[in-house]
Amino acid sequence: MKIRCFSKNSVGLVLLIAAVCCGEEPVDEPTDLGGGFEYILTDPGKVEIEVGEKDTKKPDIKAPEAVGGLADSAWPIFGQNRQHSGRSSFVGAQDPTIHWSFAVTGKISAAPVIASDGTVYFGAGDSNLYAVSPTGNELWFFKTGGALDNSPTIGADNLIYVGSYDGKLYSVKDNGIGKWEFNAESPVSTSALIDDDGQITIGTQSGRVIGVSYFGEQVWEFQTGGSVSSPALMNDGGIVLGSEDNSVYALDSNGGLRWFADLGGDVRASPVVAEDGTIYVGALAGPVEQFVALAPDGTKLWSAQVDGGVEGSPALAADGTVYVASLSGNVYAYNTSGEQQWVSKIGGGKAIRTSLTVDAAGVIYSGANNGRLYALNSDGTEKWKVDLGGPVWTAAIIGSEGSLYAAANGAVHEVGSS
Q1: pLDDT tens, 105-130?
Q2: pTM score of the predicted model
Q3: Among 220, 306, 341, 344, which is disulfide-ready with 380 (CB 3.0 to 4.6 Å)?
């Protein structure tokens, strides 16, 4: 490889042609010196100097372009997709056994995500973003300045985005090296949503919803009255999210308000958007209802009483059935008209705080505060359960080989078939 660079001396412009013997790439972007560009090499090797006139042709350096969308992987974002449906295209473990557990010193309160090469990423209360191999070995960790209480998001270019309670959103390369950080000035309470143009939307505990460019610069902001839940992508490109001011908000892609709906209780979980645009969302403790279906324009379609309120996101089956868990330890199934199909009392009275997951065969997965991860058949009967040794705080996500990954007792566990 030959790297061209200019510098000035008392005689004039000197053209340097650096032959990089070891084949290493430059480690930094070019620096504009006015007369040309300077490159910093990892190992310059042999350098030949030629004296010549200034090259008036502009260097052919292409500006970086934003990359939108998600990684092509089994589970790249909270809820598996940007609508947060919680539905996998793979079938989960049939005969469960714990293959490995990866323990950390801090609480793990948000679900992992999976990269295209099978790497598992998750954040923890010890302020670290972890990368773990498919066999359960640590690859690296990235230190932030505060607890990580939400799932990372993996972009189409394999950049990882994670918000921290230090008030910053971090962009991290898949080798564990930070790319940039954005100061949101309040603990980041959501996972990152990436649109097709590379714009990133996050929310904070102070109620701000912020649009951030692919390069880490603020584009817009919108203020709600409470801590924000993870934003979901509406079918027309809008954004829908919940807030602990009891409301659900729909924004356009530039942060403008379309509508809001008051649910009468804190909305801590992310809304879920169905294929027909229906928005499903629960509230923590409303006076009359805790689970609601909204039309794309915010009109209430139906509502249901859910004992104890809802803290996790629902999951949508391929046939349109929606499943939601309650703080009373129950899992409910509703059809698209809001008619209850069944209720399963799996939690034994212990709260279910996790979001739900449904696999390609229609099996529903839920953790509970009693320390167990459950698999339910589509009729609500128990398929299996496995003890994870402590309250299950996160949704169970599904990898391409059918293994499930969930966190309990300060560890991420891989649960696969025997």
Answers
A1: 999 999 999 999 999 999 999 999 99
A2: 0.85
A3: 344
